[in-house]
């Protein structure tokens, strides 16, 4: 079976590379072919920005507001330079907040002390959303749903933390504090925190990671330590619960996921909901796969959530190489695709930080590039998420250069999510274009005057078309001259522009012949 998979891998990479070469070779096209050939690629290109333990941002606790902002802007500039179209920012690593919240205290990872606001005061999430959108990049807010305290947190627990306000729903497990998913108050609190962010901030997505019930810990003798949820389990049985304890735990998580998806849509239907579970559902699925069993250990039935469509995108952490049969990137990708019965987005996560691991654990950049190419060639997947942005910002093993020169060479739109359209919604508006006299500027408007989410601008000189994706807030576009090697710079002759709305739907294209200046 694995030999067959190897042949498939080679074919997929060949198809992907040839497809990219074909697209580039057909940029010189006739006018009537523009909609077919210069429709932008549809691919989710994202990176996680982890704040827990200061993995990515801020680089350390207690930086000044000015330094925090500068670091975040540098990461967003990296994303823009690499033609990423989304970042996933961790704003709640452990029942704390990297934003202004009345429900949870300021994070220690931001200021160095839990409950202490940054000085001068600013709201990091509002700043991140504004700056991401100014670059035409989606901002997904990443929440850890149940972790209440991380061992890297060293400052005193503030009075605003849930372990102080409602200690009966918080359990100590190993070196961590954890919300008990069997406690209704714990679930209500987490959902209230997430919905508060959805209401108050212009985020594009809500994102959960792989922590549900905690990864297991062992005692000093090496024995497995049971999660201490005896009180909530006994209360459930007293209330008539007939499931086994393991099934009851899974039911707690299932109900949370389904409820959260429903309540996000009641607030803002266009806000996407995504989950990034451990990459293996259960060993033996498919048969060659071995490894950790999230279903029985984390009580996370990730397959059920995907099958039922309780999310808009699914990002299994496929943190393994292509070749090894026991945990094979393309084999697992194929298996997850087969579970996508509701046709949601499948955007796998990639362990790009392996590029700066120590010794034999380090991967070559060619592994990540090949994984991206495999995903691009896959009929059922339409994007990738890199863990984490540090590897891209640091150009580990030259990965940023290789992506920019290869699979991310041209800009791409986030794949559309048509199921998120409200009944009776108007389609994206066709642009109104005006060439301004004073300068070589193109004025971009819609008939209603409302800003779209994005502009897709195509520019023709002779038979050569180029494409740019611009933030919708831009009202004027400086028309660039084309300067072929060895030739004088000349003005473009025609532009063609479309708009894109918040769920990725694109309008018809408006054409305008340009006057020479």
CATH architecture of the largest domain: Alpha-Beta Barrel
Give the N-to-C terminal Cα separation: 63 Å
Number of strands: 21
Write out the strand line-up for the largest beta sheet, numbering strands in chain order.
11-10-9-8-4-3-2-13-12
Report the total helices: 15
CATH topology of the largest domain: TIM Barrel
Strand content: 15-25%
For the sheet with most strands, the description reads: 9 strands, parallel
Rg, nearest Å? 24 Å
Helix fraction? 25-40%
- What is the name of the CATH superfamily of the largest domain? Glycosidases
The total number of structural domains is 2
CATH class of the largest domain: Alpha Beta
Which residues form runs of ≥5 with pLDDT under 50?
1-32
The protein's oligomeric status is single chain
